[in-house]
Amino acid sequence: MDENITKKFLVKQLLVPSYFSDLKGELSIPSLFHLFQEVAWEHATTNQFGYTHLHAKGLFWALSRVQVEIAEMPKWTSSIIVKTWPSGIEGAFALRDFTVENEKGKRLVSATSSWLIVDIESRRPKRPNEFKDTMPICETIRATNGNAQKLVSLNGSIISSQEIVSKIADIDINGHINNTKYIEWAISSIPIELYAQSHIHKISVNFLSEGFCNDKICATTTQGENGDYSCEIIRQSNSQKLCIVQFDILPA
User: Is 237 helix (H, G, I), strand (E, B) or coil?
Assistant: First the structure.
């Protein structure tokens, strides 16, 4: 694995392994989110505002919003270059962008994300301004044309509903359900025939509240009038909406 870490950017080159691939022989969408999570952590740690640095101050990072635009998913065994950088501050959000390119430099995936700094005890967000001096922000280069936006419920027909009980393997180091698990559950709510014969070209995600081990969860997917899809993930005990994942899907 080749890698290049600078203050503003982290760039990693890697091969798409079999365990990151889906039924189409492409990098799976949950695996894409795993990669984003890992390179974000590594770059933040390199620049002294990662997990251990915030934890020492009684804080942690929480992913709040993501928007991913997929021109083409890389294939199993192909070489890809993943790049990330802090791209600005918007109110309470620290912004971070990502790109995925093939080895010839063709852009395959563009993404932007919005993160919160959360107090471990109160579980309330803190503004990121006090960390701004340590964040090597590059506002002049953006992966997408705008920031990830707040999502609203989609009007349409319910096409699937699944009940899930979160388990130990779903929980991350912060004690809540890892963000990638919501993506897995949302992808699994799409009919397999549709998934196999189509291309998901845009994914928008809002992480709204924390989920915990042994939560009983319902993931309900709606198909909109324009062929878009939305999966809402709700904790059944208190009807708390934990996450919304919306897909724009095109024929393959």
Answer: coil
